[in-house]
Every structure is written in structure tokens, then in C-alpha cells.
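hey so u asked for the seq, here:
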Amino acid sequence: MVMPINLLGLGFISRIARLHGTIPVGIITRVGFAVSERTCAALRRLDKRWDGTVGRLLFYWPTLTISLTVRVMLDIWSSYIFEAN
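ran it, C-alpha cells below
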């Protein structure tokens, strides 16, 4: 139930942003870069911490999968917002 509500909320926000054009491209790219850098640093720490253990299977791989999925979804969403009409 939470995911559909989040998707509806993000869809509503993206349509408002496309309609009004209030979000500059530079802000989104800077925020995306900062989040990407922090995510990569956290994944590197997880990789070093659980090198060759069961923790890698339980924590690193699911975290990597989730972060890559979110990254792809945000890339698609950001390209959808900034496409030309």
C-alpha cells in the first residue's frame, strides 16, 4: 500500500514540475551527483567490511541491487521531467 501511494505522489510532483518548470536542471544534477557519491561510498564500505563472508550475501548484494534500481528509476524520471514538449 505504501509503494502505490509513493508512486502517485512522485507522479504528481513530476507533473507539477513539468508544468511550472520551477526546478532548475543544475539543482537536480548536483543533488543526484551528491547522492550517487554517498551511495557509492557506503557500498564500498559494505564491500570492504564483509569481504568474503555471509554478510556480503545478506547485506551488500541486496543493498547494491536496491541502489542500482533506484538510480535507474531516478534517471528515467529525471529524463522524463526534462524532455522537450
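The CA atoms of residues 28 and 34 lie 10 Å apart. The mean pLDDT is 76.
lmk if thats what u needed
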